[in-house]
Amino acid sequence: MRMDIRLPTPVRGLLLENPHPQEIILEGLSLSGAYLRPPVRVGEAILEIQLPELEDLKLSAQKVREDERGTAVRFLFAEEQSLLKLWNFILARLSPYWGKACPYCNRGVVVKGRCSTCRFLVDIKKSTYIYEHMAETLPLRVGQYARVLASGEALRVYTLLNRLTLCKQGYKPDIEFVGSCSRMLEVFSLIRKVAPLDVPVLILGESGTGKELVAQAIHERSLRRNNPFVAINCAAIPEALLEAELFGYEKGSFTGASASKMGKAELAHTGTLFLDEIGDLPLNLQAKLLRFLEKGEVQRIGEVRPRRVDVRILAATNRDLSRAVREGAFREDLYYRLAVFTLELPPLRERGEDKLILADYFLRKFSMEYHVKRRFSAAAKNAILEYEWPGNVREMINKIRRAIIVSESEEITPGDLGLGSNGPMEKQPTHPSRMKARDLDGEALYRLLSENDFNVSRTARKLGVSRPTLYKLIKKHGLKLER
Question: What global pTM score does this model have?
Answer without folding.
Answer: 0.54
